[in-house]
Amino acid sequence: xxxxxxxxxxxxxxxxxxxxxxxxxxxxxxxxxxxxxxxxxxxxxxxxxxxxxxxxxxxxxxxxxxxxxxxxxxxxxxxxxxxxxxxxxxxxxxxxxxxxxxxxxxxxxxxxxxxxxxxxxxxxxxxxxxxxxxxxxxxxxxxxxxxxxxxxxxxxxxxxxxxxxxxxxxxxxxxxxxxxxxxxxxxxxxxxxxxxxxxxxxxxxxxxxxxxxxxxxxxxxxxxxxxxxxxxxxxxxxxxxxxxxxxxxxxxxxxxxxxxxxxxxxxxxxxxxxxxxxxxxxxxxxxxxxxxxxxxxxxxxxxxxxxxxxxxxxxxxxxxxxxxxxxxxxxxxxxxxxxxxxxxxxxxxxxxxxxxxxxxxxxxxxxxxxxxxxxxxxxxxxxxxxxxxxxxxxxxxxxxxxxxxxxxxxxxxxxxxxxxxxxxxxxxxxxxxxxxxxxxxxxxxxxxxxxxxxxxxxxxxxxxxxxxxxxxxxxxxxxxxxxxxxxxxxxxxxxxxxxxxxxxxxxxxxxxxxxxxxxxxxxxxxxxxxxxxxxxxxxxxxxxxxxxxxxxxxxxxxxxxxxxxxxxxxxxxxxxxxxxxxxxxxxxxxxxxxxxxxxxxxxxxxxxxxxxxxxxxxxxxxxxxxxxxxxxxxxxxxxxxxxxxxxxxxxxxxxxxxxxxxxxxxxxxxxxxxxxxxxxxxxxxxxxxxxxxxxxxxxxxxxxxxxxxxxxxxxxxxxxxxxxxxxxxxxxxxxxxxxxxxxxxxxxxxxxxxxxxxxxxxxxxxxxxxxxxxxxxxxxxxxxxxxxxxxxxxxxxxxxxxxxxxxxxxxxxxxxxxxxxxxxxxx
Length: 827
Fold this sequence. Notes:
elongated; StiP_N; alpha/beta; seven-stranded mixed β-sheet; disordered N terminus
């Protein structure tokens, strides 16, 4: 009996009837085949029809337990076929993109088998262990990229998993290619359905005899598709007749989201560090055990993010990323009262027809968002629009978390146009470590976040630091200065006592912020636009703690305000003379592409930190073999002409330089001391919780962010001008510092601190000797003059100063250089 007749007898409309009636396609086979398959029309010149699985979780949203259960059951059948001993040596290979999750599920059913899946995404630095072609597909090239090439070289059975076994060409191509390199005695082919024609049925046996190996086939059901002779041309005519003229129809792309589309909230899964996101490079039983233990907590975080009263929820995976979303959906289905469904996006172009007898009712169309090797193109989500979902949780890997995903015509906007609530969960894309990487700890701690560490919101910044809040590190300024200049201590081994501003000084801060907020907002916008245009469309902001951290947060806010981007942002420690925190670099390289990392600071002085970073990254590349980190810092202000990426080269007051921790999230400057920071630790810092009453950190950020709208047009113009200008550093600041050092008899250029920000630091943290101020400098120096007066430091006006001001630290300082009142003497 054919499947349409069986479905009709049950009073249901078979989801293949529309195609069957119009093309004369017949589907015959096992009882229940209609429960597994429907039919649709491909928009593909190579094949007219598409068998649409109801249990694969690709085109048709389905209960995740049903999807996982079918794959797991097939794995159990393979285990029974092989026996326990052979099953214990088996390796599973799934096919991208459709059967990546199915392959994983079969491996789970086998119990102890590692899983690998083919991929259409090349990964830099990972050697190919094989590849093959899928002749009928719209995207044919498959790559095999195991982290451990020995995964395919063992003698045990190779289990090849695909969603359907139709002609057998793909499987035979794979076995032939692999058997030449890694011959073995046994192969098992697994598919949900065996749909070979009678002519193809005998090929598998002939092929097995040809290569001298046993090849078994395990499927859930079997049947045959009978096609009329002219089906390809007839199918193309039918597609042309029903393809919508515009994408705005119900069975097309849906209403495109406008530029004011609401930002999609992120769900922090807290994915286990180092756990692969899938089998692109191999997924072992040990990986599976780690995932199993983490699933309940991750699913609970998704559940917490769902809107109250959600009755129907879709977990939507992304192309090859099928297994992780599937397992998350299974756990969610087990623990929440809502009806949970699971499907994924796809490359496969299929006609959508809003008819109950057709398997693909609706189609969302959006641009590729994972920088595919075959270039830009359309991607699709089927049967999502109009399906009655109260919420959709899109699960993508970090390589696919790009501006295209968040664009007005991107996947998230298309989902938001049809579903009341959309959430986004990002799984870190796993990239194998270089084989020559030195041995190092496998686990580094996750970033510290507010409110447990800092007064910033947890999504604003993650601190790659260790918390030393309970350690006494403060020393009087005079003691620190004497120890530093005598060579007895490094400035990063202790902390200055936190300066608590007077009421008069606080008023100067607020006045400076009111006057400079617009100029700051313009600089923030300009430098962010340059970063997005030149460095990366999806940069990872890494601020140099702590002065760079407010700037990094403001840049992150601008990217969200102007482009709808939700950029990752971390803060790391860099110490003059000691370099950047290498463990922080390792953490970043494990989770992000180093080429996307953009280091951020507040301003440049003479360029010492710029040079320090470049040298440190060269050393890191030599020691760890990790390439890609750029030494170029992005700053708000570059008065020293030390960098190419800046918002302005004016030397103006950045109010966050006026204060210490109370404008920097209540975090101290960073600490590097051998008895506190071991070789496998992040550098340290303190969280001054006791200063919460005086904290202005968020107020500073909000005051600048509030000006974004009014400066947007100016930023666009200014960024465009700078992008077309010559911005090569001249290092004019360094030359000026050398000249001043010689003129004032200061033997160490590190005691000359140019610029408003650096001068303020001298007055707050060091023992100042003199302040040089450019003649005619106005309100930018009000706070400097007040601090200098409080500390008894002379301010000397200089006519040709290239900076607004320069702070001079007392050369060859000893505590004898202070008078009885503790103020610096001038002689």
